[in-house]
Amino acid sequence: MTLERRVERLLGSSLRHARQWPGRLRRTILWSAALLCTVVLAGVISAPASLSQQALLGLLLVVAALVLRRFEGRLPIIAMISLSLIASLRYMYWRLSETLQLENFHDTLFGYTLVAAELYALVVLVFGYVQTAWPLRRRPILLEQAPEQWPSVDVFITTVNESLEIVKVTVFAAQGLDWPEDKLRVHVLDDGHREEFREFCESVGAHYLTRDTNLHAKAGNFNAALRVTQGEYIAAFDADHVPSRSFLQIAMGWFLKDPRLAMLQTPHCFFSPDPFEKNLDTWHSVPNEGELFYGLVQDGNDLWNAAMFCGSCALMRRAPLEAVGGMDETTLTEDAHTSLKLNRAGYNTAYLALPQAAGMATENLSRHINQRIRWARGMTQIFRTDNPMLGRGLTLGQRVCYTNAMLHFFYGFPRMVFLTAPLAYLIFGAQIFHAAPLMVAAYAFPHLLLANLTNSRIQGRFRHSYWNEVYETVLAWYILPPVLMAMIRPRSGHFNVTDKGGDLHPEFFDWKMARPYIVLLLLNIAGVLFGIYDYLGADDTTDITVLLNQLWALYNVMVTSAALAVASESRQIRSEPRVEAQLPVSLQRADGRLLQSITEDFSQHGLGLRLAEGQSIARGERLRVSLFRHEQRYDFDGTVVSSQGRNLGIQFDPLTLRQQSDLVHLTFARADTWAMSWGTGKPDSPLAALREVSAIGLHGIAELLRATVRLLPLARRSSPPSALDTP
Question: What are the required cofactors (predicted)?
Answer without folding.
Answer: Mg(2+)
